[in-house]
Amino acid sequence: MKAVRFTGIKRPLELQEVPLPKIYEREILVKVKAAGICHSDAHYRAGISPVSYAPLTFGHEVAGVVEKIGSQVTGVSIGDRVCLHYLITCGDCYYCSTGNEQFCPNGKMLGHHTDGGYAEYIAVPARNAVPLPAEIPFEQGATLMCASATAYHALLKGRMNPGDTVAVFGAGGLGQSAIQLAKAFGAVQVYAVDIHEEKLALASQYGAVPINGKISDAVKEIKARTHSRGVDVAVEMIGLPETQKQALQSAGPLGRVVLVGLSDKNLSVHTYSEILGSEVELIGSNDHLLQELPKLIQFAATNMLDTSKIVSRTIPLDAGAINETLDALEKFNAGVRTVIVP
């Protein structure tokens, strides 16, 4: 089968011919119908977040059709439409048994620690398959597995309550989902901060107040619009120290600041004025949980979460097109979400 693979840090991904994955008794083989290109993939290629080995097939946002099942698989059938939870875990350790599988000591992430979905087929444990309703296209189902799921988990970590005000820094795939989900959770106002007008325009369509960080001071504008108070929840989706700092400074008393964007740079914090004095909480949000996905998919299936505009374009399983997308992501100049359709 064909796969587009990482072969080394800061090197272009390459189209390669690789063997069809074998499956074991509790695994399934999925024919990939869609694989999203995440900003994290650009970080992996650049070496900001090192992968486990090379060559490696990227791709952790995956949806497709079950092609083959192992002898002990129940609950999943050949022909099922599925999207894939990207954390492959043991299922038996303390963290797995308490519903916090992202900390499984034996955990592996698709496309980061083991081969992912930039390919024609992928093999995963059957428990990683989440039913994808027919009303959700594969391309949109793929983005639910990271962009939307990570945003959903971040808002849960931020303990967002009805009546809260929310600021979302970064209006890409994660940010657009966060805006809609915050509204679904009952936010009275959502502020979207970005430097790209097309992303801000989409955020506005989803009910957010757009703030262009290129032409205005985002913190001052948020404070002005909230009568100097600041927001209850700020979510940073970019991974830049500048926007992380802005998220922290935009929070009001008792505010919760959730960091989601990956970064290899340190964040400098003024302990009293930015945290202690107002009892602001700085919260890390890492991945998401399998148990959260059915509810998220229900949001999408009932149009409480509109994923139709999250996919800004589709491309074939082509190394050149994929590398161009990763290049654009490194420059923070890509569309909302590009999805590979093999």
CATH topology of the largest domain: Quinone Oxidoreductase, Chain A, domain 1
Overall 3D shape: globular
Beta strands, count: 18
Number of helices: 10
- In round numbers, the mean pLDDT is 94
What would you note in describing this structure?
It is a single chain. This protein has 342 residues and is α/β, with parallel strands linked by helices. The chain has two domains: 2-146 and 288-340, Medium-chain alcohol dehydrogenases, catalytic domain (Quinone Oxidoreductase, Chain A, domain 1, Alpha-Beta Complex); 159-284, 3-Layer(aba) Sandwich (Rossmann fold). It is built from ten helices and 18 strands. α1 crosses α10 (319-330), α3 (138-157) packs across α4 (173-184) and α6 (218-225) packs parallel to α7. The model has no long low-confidence stretch (mean pLDDT 94).
Please outline what is shown here:
Helices cover 29% and strands 25% of the residues.
List the helices and strands and how they pair.
Elements: E1 2-6, E2 14-17, E3 27-37, H1 39-46, E4 56-57, E5 61-69, E6 81-84, E7 87-88, H2 94-97, E8 108-109, E9 121-125, E10 129-131, H3 138-157, E11 165-169, H4 173-184, E12 189-194, H5 197-205, E13 209-212, H6 218-225, E14 231-236, H7 241-250, E15 251-259, H8 271-276, E16 281-284, H9 293-301, E17 313-315, H10 319-330, E18 338-340
Parallel strand pairs: 11-12, 11-14, 12-13, 14-15, 15-16, 17-18
Antiparallel strand pairs: 1-2, 1-4, 3-5, 3-9, 3-18, 5-6, 6-10, 7-8
Helix pairs in contact: 1-10, 3-4, 3-9, 6-7
